[in-house]
Specification:
heterodimer; B: Ammonium transporter fold; three-stranded antiparallel sheet; 62% helix; globular
Chain lengths: 74, 466
């Protein structure tokens, strides 16, 4: 996976290759696909948990000042 | 980099943008403080997290497609040909500034020893994106779902503002050529579009419960923590120094750039690659801030919230032309912008029952819009670019700055790319039942469950003696 294994060889080459991250030139598209899946997946998961939280709280029908009873220590 | 002068110039530029990014982080710190200070106690934590989570959402989408859009869309596409390849299509060819190099799977979007600029320039623009999304965030607190806000933040932060930047901020943008559009420090490109977008969302979202009486009279839901709000605004001022610096190119030789044979002219330039100085814009930043504060204190009768916001509105209104104004012009323009934004805020609130919780539409949207229009008159006749000078509607050369072009530009920023998409996306989210939190939750407070679950622990701690 290592793109560079010897800096002296790398920097003294006739043309220095700029991209030095692991998997340069072969892994970028796969990384982007993984990144997009993680991004979309995050929306799906957090949307689900937010919807559950909101409907649970909505069912309790608390008053506008009820939250004050949850403030125990100032 | 093999010669020392070239290396110094490159690394100075790299470091310059890096510093602007660090400074601009303070804008977001300020926005978070300001929003939490403006919200009621029972909504604090959700308000904070809503604004915080736009950071990763806009960042990853800016990496995936936002940055690519900026480099691909200057021609419209199809509105005016590029000066680089003379085509009006999307710029995805092999030219130096093509979007091709900024797709997320290219070797320049990573550690690359041959490229010291892309990452810091990407980040400077990303911080503008956060600002655009954060402006929207403040207006809609206490009643929007975090899911809906995430979608809206991505839309304004990684899609619509970057289209407007390609059109009206890129050195090859069609709005410069056809309209003579000029907006050096983003009165329209960031502020008017974000304010317009927020207004479009607010129309669909509706006011907070209790904001209007049964007869339609607005009630003031003032900041719950004035200290947090005002210190937050101070931090936004501080971050704006980075914002202004990031809108410049710190050192550039305009002689060869403009094709002037034998001429060497090193200078700082604005985003359009026309000359200005960091010194000059420092005069104007501070004078427009002062104009805004003076006018705000007067019109709001010393109200701290509006006075601080007016300082920001003053800078925003003068920003379009702060690369060229005289400092006293900048001050007067800042004052005018504040008076108009303040009056419009209350007129719109009363007339259309719009509940803009932090005055974001006024401070950013109206002040930005007015700033663009004023710039058209004050800078009438200045070239919008150094590359050529032509007539309006010509398309192949660059039109001069003019009142009509700036007015049309303001409508494009605030209305076409701001309010309209905000309204449409909010409508879709509302149709899906995803836009607004349930009424019962708004009354109880978004943080109710969080606070309730911590109650027993808190009680135990508060009664503990050892």
């Amino acid at each position: 996976m290592a793109t560079v294994t010897n800096w002296i060889d790398h920097l003294s080459a006739k043309e220095v290759v700029g991209a030095v991250y692991p998997g340069a030139g072969s892994s970028e598209t796969l990384l982007v696909i993984i990144g997009i899946v993680l991004w979309i997946g995050w929306h799906v998961l957090t949307n689900r948990s937010e919807s559950e939280e909101l409907s649970r709280l909505a069912r309790k029908k608390r008053g506008a000042n009820d939250y004050k009873s949850n403030v125990a220590d100032w | 980099m093999t010669d020392q002068l070239g290396a110094l110039t490159t690394i100075f530029t790299e470091f310059y943008y890096w510093v602007t990014v660090v400074l601009m982080f303070l804008i977001h710190v300020g926005f978070c403080m300001y929003e939490v200070g403006a919200s009621r106690y029972k909504h604090h934590q959700h308000t904070l997290m809503k604004n915080t989570m736009l950071i990763p959402l806009v960042t990853v989408t800016w990496f995936f497609f936002g940055w690519w859009i900026y480099w691909a869309f200057p021609t419209g596409p199809g509105i005016a040909p590029s000066i680089m390849n003379e085509s009006a299509a999307l710029i995805t060819d092999e030219s130096t500034f093509s979007a091709k190099w900024y797709a997320p799977n290219t070797e320049f979007m990573a550690v690359n020893l041959g490229d010291h600029i892309s990452g810091v320039f990407w980040a400077a623009f990303l911080l503008f994106s956060w600002t655009a999304a954060s402006i929207v965030s403040g207006a809609i607190i206490e009643r929007i779902t975090t899911f809906a806000f995430g979608i809206l933040a991505i839309a304004i932060g990684s899609v619509f503002w970057t289209i407007d930047a390609a059109w009206g901020w890129h050195f090859d943008g069609w709005m410069l050529k056809i309209l003579g559009y000029h907006d050096a420090y983003a009165s329209g490109v960031i502020h008017a579009i974000a304010g317009g977008f927020a207004l479009g969302v607010l129309v669909v979202l509706g006011p907070r419960i209790g904001k209007f009486s049964s007869s339609g009279e607005p009630r003031n839901i003032g900041p719950r923590n004035p200290w947090l709000v005002t210190v937050g605004l101070f931090l936004i001022y501080t971050g704006f120094w980075g914002f202004y610096a990031a809108c410049n190119i710190p050192i550039f030789d305009l002689g060869p750039e403009y094709g002037m044979e034998g001429v060497t002219y090193w200078t700082a330039t604005n985003i359009y690659v026309t000359p200005t100085t960091l010194s000059g814009i420092t005069f104007n930043f501070l004078m427009s801030l002062s104009g805004g504060l003076l006018a705000g204190y007067w019109i709001a009768k010393g109200d701290p919230f509006w006075t601080y916001s007016s300082g920001l509105a003053g800078v925003i209104c003068a920003s379009a032309g702060n690369d060229l104004y005289h400092p006293i012009q900048a001050m007067i323009i800042g004052m005018i912008g504040v008076v108009i934004a303040y009056k419009l805020h209350y007129w719109v609130e009363r007339k259309f029952k719009i509940d803009d919780a932090v005055g974001a539409v006024a401070v950013h949207g109206y002040a930005g819009f007015v700033g663009l229009v004023i710039c058209g008159f004050v800078l009438n006749g200045y070239p919008s670019s150094g590359y050529s000078v032509g007539a309006m509607w010509d398309g192949s050369t660059y039109a001069s700055i003019n009142p009509l072009g700036q007015f049309l530009g303001a409508i494009i920023m605030f209305g076409v790319l701001g309010m309209l998409p905000g309204y449409i996306i909010a409508k879709v989210l509302s149709g899906m039942g995803k836009l607004r939190i349930p009424r019962e939750v708004e009354i109880a407070g978004l943080d109710y469950e969080m606070m309730e679950s911590a109650k027993e622990d808190e009680k135990a701690v508060s009664s503990a003696t050892r």
